Amino acid sequence: MSDQTAPVSLEEFNHRLAEISETMPKRLRQCAEFVAQNTDRIAVSTVAELSIGAGVQPSAFMRFCQLMGFSGFSEMQKMFRETYAQKWPDYATRLENLRATGDDSPSALLAEFVEAGRLSLENLASTVDLKTLEKAVDVLAAAPMIHVVGFRRAFPVASYLSYAFEKMDIAAVLHDGVGNLNPRHAIRTGDVVIAITFAPYSQETIDLAAYAHDIGSQVVAISDALSGPMRKTDALMLSVSEVDVGAFRALSATISLAIALAVSVGAKRDKLAYGK
Amino acid sequence: MSDQTAPVSLEEFNHRLAEISETMPKRLRQCAEFVAQNTDRIAVSTVAELSIGAGVQPSAFMRFCQLMGFSGFSEMQKMFRETYAQKWPDYATRLENLRATGDDSPSALLAEFVEAGRLSLENLASTVDLKTLEKAVDVLAAAPMIHVVGFRRAFPVASYLSYAFEKMDIAAVLHDGVGNLNPRHAIRTGDVVIAITFAPYSQETIDLAAYAHDIGSQVVAISDALSGPMRKTDALMLSVSEVDVGAFRALSATISLAIALAVSVGAKRDKLAYGK
DNA sequence: TATAAAACAGAATAAATATTCCATTCATGG
DNA sequence: CCATGAATGGAATATTTATTCTGTTTTATA
After folding, report:
1. What is the pLDDT of residues B129-180, one digit of tens each?
2. Where do the structural domains in chain A lie, given as residue ranges?
């Protein structure tokens, strides 16, 4: 049993887990990994189920609980059940009420988009590729100039990125297609291009990304699938799957990812500047 | 025990509950009401706890479970635990993990924006003024031409609205400020203006809305507060409060509201067209 | 390689929890 | 107002689930 006091929140729990899982013996580390991957199940499972999941004996799982600072499994589960209860406000009910009025009434549609946005965000949180995201931030933070391109439904994302960069005094150009000028000559070797495009992919965006790649510029792509036409450009692919409502999507996840990317770049630049 | 088969989803469960709770004896109705109010707790509670909550004996609660079509409490709880697992695709955990790495790491920022977006959406669902929303839809559906205006951080919203209108073959103009032309002469009496602006309010947007109001056009405003400079224009005010992350916001709620508005207008126009 | 300490699996036990049963109370129709 | 059946409360029981214990295996150390 551990001499430390038991975690009382998910934060503390995760912190503790990260802290000690390094030094755990084999079976207990199995438990730690399984728990880290399936935290959500703890509240509603038995020791037997969890230990099978982790591939260990129930007794091993018990030792794990004790190492984490709890007196046993029950106490640990209690914590998870309590924190779970807080999570549900009456949001679900509100949504029901919005929906209640009819199929294509404004409020029903709003409810759909709100729920789609929420699902997309939750999905984003669990599927985003952190490695690639960090790499993209590094690349962008070092770029002498950032080119942002995205048309049609990707355009709002592109314009918001530009706004964010501008606000943080980061050199960036939004390629907005005004005047049908050929924008590629503005891109110099070493510049970085952020290309945003969703199926059906717009040709201008693909062309610009391909050109950038040809002249040796790095491309960061925000798209709705890992494959797709951006593959060829060796882009750092950030994929987002948005939940559709009919023929439209709310862009919540995409915009969140974009703004997080932009702000991260800003933060990184500050750090580099102070580092010098 | 009921002769009917047991519900296998939350929907079925709720339906059944509504159906039979009318005709239940006193104690069992207490159970029904408590369960309806605390659906979320079932997965993580014991019969004893729930029956105390409902103010009945455990045996009464058992009878309730059987009336609902389950063999007993365990089976009912099983259903809730299973649907819970889907609803909770360890989103909370992932978010924790994202956050765990550090304060301004990309993943931590992303987690912040995702959470901010989620909160904003939930907030939107419970605070939006449905009356005004429906009125706005009516007005826009009848407009010969829709003008969309919004600059700086409102511009992504404005551009997405235009995209949606275009896709639905609805006549709309995006006033994007290119060329610094004075756009007001494009607005005719009877046209409707959608003005999007957040504090600090951009002068161009306010001016355009004021002009539109002067010539007798209706204004629909999407903004972050009910008061603010749009008040004077007699606008239909749709207010959205977004949760900020530092100096930025993810726009999730605003965009969701905007797209719901646009699609509603599209649906309404279809209805009017078929009606004729 | 020998030895001690730690980790482990599996079975045995303890505790918690669900479920049933039955005596009592309450409501309903004659 | 009584008789009958439904509804109820509470305790007894059955079942599930957590926890501990012990002999064995693995691992680290000298």
Report:
1. 888 999 999 999 999 999 999 999 999 999 999 999 999 999 999 998 777 6
2. 10-87, 91-125, 128-275
Instruction: Return all residues near A133 (Cβ < 8 A) that are at least 6 apart.
Output: A238, A261, A264, B106, B107, B110
CATH class of A10-87: mainly alpha
* Global pTM exceeds 0.70: no
> Shortest CA–C1' contact from A60: which nucleotide?
C8
**For domain B126-275, which CATH number applies: 3.40.50.300, 3.40.50.10490, 3.40.50.720, 2.60.40.10?**
3.40.50.10490
Confidence of residue A49 (pLDDT cuts 50, 70, 90): very high
Task: Give the mutation candidate from A11, A44, A241 for the B interface (greatest B CB count, under 10 A).
Answer: A44
Asked if residue A260 lies in contact with residue B110, where contact means CB atoms within 8 angstroms, the answer is yes
pLDDT at B187 over 90: no
B251 reaches A (C-beta below 8 A): yes
Please state which of the four CATH numbers 3.30.1330.10, 3.30.70.1400, 3.40.50.10490, 3.30.1490.20 is assigned to the domain occupying A128-275: 3.40.50.10490
Q: B237-256, pLDDT tens digit by residue?
A: 898 888 888 888 889 999 99
Q: Which of B165, B170, B211 is nearest to B189 (CA)?
A: B211
Sign of the torsion formed by the C-alpha atoms of A208, A211, A217 and A222: positive
CB < 8 Å to A89, chain B:
122
Residues whose CB is less than 8 angstroms from the CB of residue A63 and which lie 6 or more positions away in sequence, other chains included: A28
pLDDT digit string (tens) for B163-174? 999 999 999 999
Distance A27 CA to D29 C1' (A): 22
Q: Locate B251 and state its tokens.
A: 């726009």
